[in-house]
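@channel anyone free to eyeball this complex?
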Amino acid sequence: MGFWEVTLSLLGGLKYTCLIFALTLVLALPLGLVIAFGSMSKFKPFAYLVKTFVWIIRGVPLMLQVIIFFYVPGFLLGTPLLSRFASVIAAFVINYACYFSEIYRGGIESIPKGQYEAGQVLGMTKTQVFFKVVLMQVVKRILAPMSNEVITLVKDTALARVIMIVEVIQAAQNFAAYGLMWPLFYTAVFYLAFVGLLTILFGWFEKKLDYYRI
Amino acid sequence: MAVFEARNIIKSFGKTEVLKGVSFSIEKGEVLCVIGSSGSGKTTLLRCVNFLETPDVGRFYLNGDLLFDAADKKAKTDEEIRQKRLHFGLVFQSFNLFPQYTALENVSLAPLLHAKERPDYKENKKQIREEILSHSSDLLRKVGLGDKMDNYPCQISGGQQQRVAIARALALKPDVLCFDEPTSALDPEITVEVLAVMKELAAEDMTMLVVTHEMGFAREVSDKVIFMDEGVIAEQGNAKEVFDNPQSKRLQEFLSVMK
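replying in thread with the prediction:
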C-alpha cells in the first residue's frame, strides 16, 4: 500500500473531520450565546438550572457524551438509534456550546457598565445596546480564548471514532490491521495544517479588530 | 414655566437613603449647577433624572406635564422609560464613548437607530440618513472637532473625547442636557476646552443641569446653584448669593475647602 493510497484514504477521513468541525462551529456559536444569556438570566432559578446543565456537560468527558447520544435514546426510550453522524454532531454542538457560553459570559460581563448606560441614555433599546454597542467589544475581548477552544475542537473531532465514524485517525488506524503504523503518524500533518490555517485566520481577524482599543 | 421640575425625589440603596426628598426646577435656557461634596447625592440625583436610577418616591414634570410618578408602577416599563429618556441628554464623567466607532459614528449612531422608527423611513431612507449625518458633522464642528470626525476614541485626547460625548448627547436634541462631573477625569489644562464648549452652549440658551466641582465655572455660567448635603438641598440661589453670601455653615466650609 503506497503513500498515495494512504493519503487518499486519509483525505476521505478528513472529510468527516471537516464536517464535524464546521457543523459544530456553525451551530454551537449561536447556541452558546443563548446558553450564556440563560446563565445570566435575572430569573435566578432558571439561571441555576442553566448553570447546572453547563456543569454536567463540561463535567462529563466528550467521548462519553458521544456514546450516550448514540446508544442511550435507544436503550431508554426505545426510539431508533440516531445516525452515527447525527449523534456526534448533537454531542459536539451541545458540549461546545456550553464551553462557548462561558467565554461569552466572561466577555459580556467584562464590558463596563458605562457602555450600557451610554446606550440607554441615548434612548436605545436593550437589543440595540447589545447588538450595536456591546457585541463588537465582546468579540474583540473573546477572540483569544475562542481561538483556543476552536483549535481544541479540531483535535476533538477524533473522538467521533468511538462510534465508528471514519475520520482521519480512524482512517489511519484501519491500516494498522495491515501492519502499517506510519499512516497514524502521518495524520499529524493534517491536523497541523488545519490548525496552522486557523491560527493564520484568527491572527488576521485580530489584526482587523486592532483599529480600536477598549 | 419651568421646562423641568423634580418634586420630592427620594431614593435609597438598600438601607442607605441617598436622596431624602429633593425638589428643584429649571427654566428654559437656564444653567443649573449642583455642587456638594462626594456622597451628598448629587450624582444620584442626576442619574434619577436620566432614569438610570428609578426614584422610590417623587415626580418629574416636563413643561408642566407629569412625566414620571414613582407611585405609578405602570409607568416603569422599559419602553416607556426609553421614550421619556429622550427628553434628557447625559454627558458622563468617564465619557463612555463607543470605542469601535469613529467620532462621527458615535454621534450619529443613536439618531440613525431612532430614524428607523419613523413612518417615512423606508421611502426617504437616503435623505433621512444624509440629514442625520450632516447634522452630526455640524455638531462635531461646533465642538471644534471638524478634523477628528473619522478618528476613533482611542486616537484622540480625553478633552476631545468629552467634546465628542457632548456632541453625541446634543444629536438627540434633548430638552435638558445633563453633565455628571464632565471634567473630573481630565487634566486641568484640558478641562478648559470642555468648559469652553459648555459655556458656548449656555450662551446659546441650552437648558443645562450640571453636577460639577468646577466652582469657577459654576460661578461664572450658572443662573442657579444648588448645594447638596447629605441627600437634601441645603442651600440654593443664584450664583452670587450662594458663592458670595453662603448662609449655612456646611456651605461655608465646603466653599472654603474648594477654593
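from a first look: The interface with chain B takes residues 112, 114-115, 117-126, 128, 132-133, 136-137, 140, 211-214 of chain A (CB under 8 Å).
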